[in-house]
UniProtKB/TrEMBL annotation:
Gene3D superfamilies: Ribonuclease Z/Hydroxyacylglutathione hydrolase-like (3.60.15.10), Winged helix-like DNA-binding domain superfamily/Winged helix DNA-binding domain (1.10.10.10). SUPFAM superfamilies: Metallo-hydrolase/oxidoreductase. Keywords: Hydrolase. GO terms for molecular function: hydrolase activity. InterPro entries: B_lactamase-like_C, Metallo-B-lactamas, RibonucZ/Hydroxyglut_hydro, Sec-metab_biosynth-thioest, WH-like_DNA-bd_sf. This is Glyoxylase-like metal-dependent hydrolase (Beta-lactamase superfamily II). The keyword Hydrolase applies. It comes from Pseudoteredinibacter isoporae.
Length: 346
């Protein structure tokens, strides 16, 4: 089956709590999540001394039960010795603390991901949410929409077990030797602060996390934590380093099925974002609020978490154009930002 000029592998999709062997010592596991796309792929790597888990699923009892079933089956002779998190989102490290505590395993994650996760999942201890209110007001959200956004701020901590209090830092070009193979760390930005992918040249295999997905683009959002940053610019720059990997490597993503055609998918992702940027630039011939631009990109009605993600992604595209000097950002009479294309006329 082909999609966007990529070819899917013939690997059997594992049921929750089961495993599919990808290569000797490499196993694919699929865990359920309660939001789209309803699953996350996690991976198990075998070493002479024990096992490493790459990403964990959310902190739910259902996921705990799946891991207990897998650990009882696979780790009778060799223990779990390491939990690797590609990044901070709860479907990736939601059970890292639980697994590390239960099995006394080491926790591997990049520094910015770890420190940001510690800050985010601790929650807001202040009564006054004026920064959040100001951020969402400037986007042009109405009171009902702002209330929904603020209500859901911090909700991710509910599906994240307490993080380990120490960790092993993952850094660019670092190599983890697991099972006699070298897994090179590739750091990327945009979807999260310091996302870590793992590439094994001996297997020509990339564990891509959320950075490269076969059917959907990873969410690239501006958050209230850093309202003026340009994560889309960082994401597009980060993508270039993956062109150094072979086109025919097997990509093992966090969502969707394993596939071949890395460069083709990278080009498709880039084209999609540039198409959205061009559409936004055209739409901003007239001054628009950030909330008004969501329909320019998505062209359909969005609700709940989809609307919240779309708001962040619209801001990411607007900030990219703003930082490049292609649009300007001004306040209107209500204190909302209005974005308008910069005229090329003298």
């Amino acid at each position: 089956m082909s999609d966007y000029s990529i070819e899917y592998s013939e690997l059997a999709i594992p049921e929750p709590g089961d495993l599919t062997e990808v290569a000797t010592g490499v196993y694919w596991i699929r865990m359920p999540v309660p939001f789209h796309p309803k699953h996350i792929n996690v991976y198990l790597l075998q070493d002479e001394k024990g096992w490493y888990i790459v990403d964990t699923g959310i902190g739910s009892q259902e996921t705990r039960d799946c891991w207990q079933q897998i650990c009882d089956r696979m780790m009778q002779e060799k223990p779990l010795i390491g939990v690797i998190a590609t990044h901070l989102h709860p479907d990736h490290l939601g059970l890292a603390g639980w697994l590390c505590d239960k099995y006394r395993a080491s926790f591997y994650i990049s520094q910015r991901e770890y420190l940001t996760a510690r800050a985010l999942f601790k929650g807001n201890n202040r009564e006054d949410n004026w920064e959040l209110i100001q951020f969402y007001h400037r986007c042009g959200l109405n009171e009902e929409q702002m209330e929904d956004f603020i209500k859901n701020t911090g909700s991710l901590s509910k599906i994240t077990a307490p993080l380990p209090i120490s960790y092993e830092r993952l850094s660019e070009a670092q190599e983890l030797i697991i099972g006699g193979r070298h897994w090179k760390i590739i750091i990327s930005h945009g979807h999260s602060p310091e996302h870590a992918c793992l590439y094994c040249p001996e297997l020509n295999m990339l564990l891509s996390g959320d950075q490269i997905l076969p059917k959907i683009s990873p969410n690239i959002s501006v958050q209230s934590l850093e309202p003026n940053q340009s994560p889309l610019s960082e994401y597009l720059i980060s993508m270039e380093k993956f062109f150094d990997l072979p086109e025919d490597c097997l990509v093992l993503p966090s969502h969707g099925d394993p596939f071949y055609g890395l460069h083709s998918r990278l080009n498709q992702l880039k084209q999609g974002h540039h198409r959205d940027l061009e559409g936004l630039l055209e739409a901003c011939e007239q001054p628009l609020r950030a909330v008004d631009t969501i329909e320019v990109i998505y062209k359909r009605e969005l609700k709940g978490i989809q609307f919240r993600l779309a708001m962040g992604e619209a801001l990411a595209h607007l900030n990219h154009l703003w930082k490049q000097g292609l649009i300007r950002r001004d306040y209107d009479d209500e204190g909302c930002y209005r974005y308008q294309k910069v005229s090329s006329e003298p």
